[in-house]
Amino acid sequence: MTETTTVEIPGYRVGTWQLDASHSEVHFTVRHMMISKVRGTFGVKSATFVTPANPLETTVTASVDVTSVDTKDEGRDKHLASADFFDAEQYPTMDFVSTGVRIEKGDFFVDGDLTIRGITKPVTFEVEFGGFGNDPWGNYKAGATAKAVINREDFGLTWNAALETGGVLVGKDVTIELDLQGALQAD
User: What is the DSSP letter of 14?
Assistant: First the structure.
């Protein structure tokens, strides 16, 4: 059951928040050869959070720099940026625009539209708030983590290779994890 009432979040403030890119990261995990996982990161290009009086009316827009993909293997990173996968030359960013925030059984979810490679699909992130507080320079900050699982093939990321032992080189499901910190902007 979705809760639609206003919720209380300790430290919550109304306003516009900008991403603190030096304290934020996008991680992903995908199966490799059906036996292990490959992990990687992307640099977050930008993100804006607008928090009205009711936290359930919060909006989020974010953009991730596809060319920043880092799996600790330069050859694989170049392949991921190529037309076989992200086609970073034509589609240099992945973009997210929220469509709603909800609570179910005490857990927060942000629904939205994710665009990868020019294809937009709905996605839901489960969100965990880290909290709020002032940094040593007087900036009011918020921290959160979020997680979603997508099928990469839904976004046109269909390259794969069959294995002699059966199965494929790259799994379909990709787990996306976000570590985000934002700073409240002055009015």
Answer: -
Q: Which has more confidence, 75 or 152? A: 75
d(CA 141, CA 146) in angstroms, rounded, equals 17
C-beta of residue 155 within 8 angstroms of C-beta of residue 140: no
- The answer to whether residue 141 sits within a structural domain is yes
- Is residue 3 a part of any domain in this protein? no
Half-sphere CA count of 6, side-chain side, radius 13 A: 6
High-pLDDT (> 90) share of the chain, %: 51
Domain of residue 54, residue span: 8-184
- 144, β-bridge pairs: 129, 180
CATH no. for residue 91?
2.40.128.110
- Is 154 a domain residue? yes
Phi and psi, residue 154, nearest 5°: -65, -20
> What is the reported pTM?
0.87
- Check whether 68 has a pLDDT greater than 70: yes
**31 in a domain, yes or no?**
yes
How confident is the model at residue 34, as a pLDDT?
A: 64
Domain count, the chain: 1
Give the Cα separation of 57 and 121 in Å (integer): 21
What six digits make up the tokens of 42? 């992307």
